[in-house]
Specification:
219 residues; alpha+beta; Conserved hypothetical protein from pyrococcus furiosus pfu- 392566-001, ParB domain; 3-stranded antiparallel β-sheet; 4 helices; 11 strands; globular
């Protein structure tokens, strides 16, 4: 919901406790796109941000994707890697979902829906066009590290008055640092407006438990 890919895929982690995947349900690209058109704005549920947009599944090289945040957390990156490893045991490739999957976790009745990274075409004031990563920063970072061309949800034609709530990072990936933690005062994203939460996309309006608790997947 807040542009954090790990909120899509994480599970509860307290100390050394880990939870594992029990079952994975696959959903095709048609259902994925249909549900994306039902995604509403967090503070205004009557606005469906992607209803009139062009939505497609595409393989895009990571150098052509613009990061909106200036950091990657090393622990979170490892969680995404563990997720990829577990999904492979169920015959699912994280970077080629061809739709989305519902992941059922040990100890939880409701699933967590895992989507491909969501990328929006964003036209900035200087006329430059960026394919900004709205959700899936750590997954795209993992794809970069593992030399994979990831499949993403690519969305064009976003209403000009409803852009993604943060700007693309000037300098792109060269300005993104990997850290263990974030010190006080660290600038994570540069927000477009003061009331930036009014630009949040609420993926939970169309999917299940997107924006769930953080955690660590077992190998």
């Amino acid at each position: 919901m807040f542009g954090n890919s790990l909120q899509l895929i994480a599970i509860i982690n307290e100390g050394e406790m880990t939870m594992k995947i029990l079952r994975v349900e696959k959903h095709g690209s048609v259902e994925l796109i249909e549900r994306l058109r039902r995604v509403s704005m967090l503070t205004n549920p009557e606005i469906f941000i992607y209803r009139e947009s062009l939505v497609s599944l595409e393989k895009i090289r990571t150098e052509f994707l613009s990061p909106p945040q200036s950091y990657i957390l090393s622990a979170e990156l490892q969680k995404v890697r563990n997720l990829r490893w577990q999904l492979k045991e169920f015959g699912v490739e994280l970077f080629s979902l061809d739709g989305y999957v519902s992941v059922y976790l040990e100890g939880y009745e409701e699933p967590v829906d895992v989507l491909p990274p969501v990328v929006e075409e964003s036209v900035e004031e200087d006329g430059s066009v960026h394919n900004i990563i709205c959700d899936g920063m750590h997954r795209v970072s993992l794809a970069r590290m593992e030399w994979v061309i990831p499949q993403v949800v690519f969305i064009r034609g976003i209403p000009r008055d409803k852009p993604y709530y943060a700007y693309p990072v000037p300098g792109g990936w060269s300005r993104v640092v990997t850290r263990e933690d974030l010190p006080e005062g660290f600038i994570k994203k540069w927000h477009r407006i003061k009331e930036y939460k009014t630009l949040y996309r609420d993926f939970n309006s169309a999917f299940t438990n997107v924006g769930g608790p953080r955690g660590r997947f077992v190998k």
